[in-house]
Amino acid sequence: MKMRIKNVAELEDELSRPSEADASATAQLDGDLLILGVGGKMGPSLARLARRASDAAGVKRRIIAVSRFSEASLPAQLALQGIETISCDLLEPGALSKLPEIPNVIFMAARKFDTSGAEHLTWAMNTLLPGLVAERYRNARIVAFSTGNVYPLRTLTEGGAVENTPVGPIGEYAQSALGRERMFENGSMRWGTPVVLLRLNYAVELRYGVLVDIGRAVFEHRPVSLRMPAVNVIWQRDANSWCLRSFSHCQSPPFILNVTGPETLSIRDVAMEFGHRFGIEPIFAPHPTASSALLSDANKGFKLFGAPLVSAADVIEAIASWIRDGGPTLDKPTHFDTRDGKF
């Protein structure tokens, strides 16, 4: 699907535009929706997508977004679109007990970057908090975002990990992310809570993501790292769509689903494509290219939801235009080339 996005307003509209499948899924969802940790890169567009999909389905539903809201203007922006907001630190004692009783919960709260040197906080966010949420919302349906980092690195000839590939998290971030899954699994097994665990790897849009990192490096004549030689990505709206449509698959024990696109992208080839579009010869870092990478196979999701509506090629084209035209970025590197799990 070709995208002609000229500014942030058009981008936000594109990221939150519901498909017929989104509207149909929300029409079948019984009750209000609570999103915990909405203040990250994906959360605001997910909240807007849920609001617009519910409206398109003609369903009167509260969408409640919870976060510390470090971006002070976000609550007002969400309120203008009919999304309720609650500002709180979910780790603060008693915070969860003050939240409303809601039958559908999306868990997005997480910590990845700056883990090194503050491992205790990463474990608290990624493992302690999910245990508390699993207990607090034991009577709800829970869709929780996890990460493909719980898998071991795979050789390029093996292809991506599938949902029953034995986990092998590298480093404390990935280990704590597996802890998040185990806490929701424990709650599901103990109380029968229906849960879906979404192992995402990686969501991209025009301001942030692996492809933005590569495109900016080429455009700015900086070396592109090949330490991680290949990657899987998915357009952020498609990932959020899968999230909303996952509620019908909540079960106990938890239903695990890889969330990514069908393409295995060579980092070198992506850099060369950006170079072609910019008229710039890419520079590659001098270290050797590895033969393994963090890769996921999402065929299980494709059978449930169909292929993503936006291809990686379309995203690369749109990002190239965005960068060339001076579009803003979030300036938050993904460190996708990290192999030792230290973020």
Q: How far apart are the termini?
A: 34 Å
Query: Mind telling me the CATH class of the domain at 8-204 and 233-261 and 297-304?
Result: Alpha Beta
CATH superfamily of the domain at 8-204 and 233-261 and 297-304: NAD(P)-binding Rossmann-like Domain
Helix content: 25-40%
Explained architecture:
This protein is of the alpha/beta class and 343 residues long. It has a domain at 8-204 and 233-261 and 297-304: 3-Layer(aba) Sandwich (Rossmann fold). Helices cover 38% and strands 15% of the residues. It contains 11 helices and 15 strands. It has helices at residues 8-15, 20-28, 43-56, 74-80, 119-136, 171-191, 210-219, 236-245, 267-278, 299-305, 312-324; strands at residues 33-36, 63-67, 84-87, 104-107, 141-147, 154-155, 195-200, 203-204, 223-224, 230-231, 234-235, 255-259, 265-266, 283-284, 292-293. The strands form 5 sheets. The protein has a 7-stranded parallel β-sheet, sandwiched between helices. Strands 6-15 form a two-stranded antiparallel sheet. A two-stranded parallel sheet has the order 8-11. Strand 2, helix 4 and strand 3 (84-87) form a beta-alpha-beta unit. Helix 7 packs across helix 11. It starts with 7 loop residues before the first helix and ends in a 19-residue tail after the last helix.
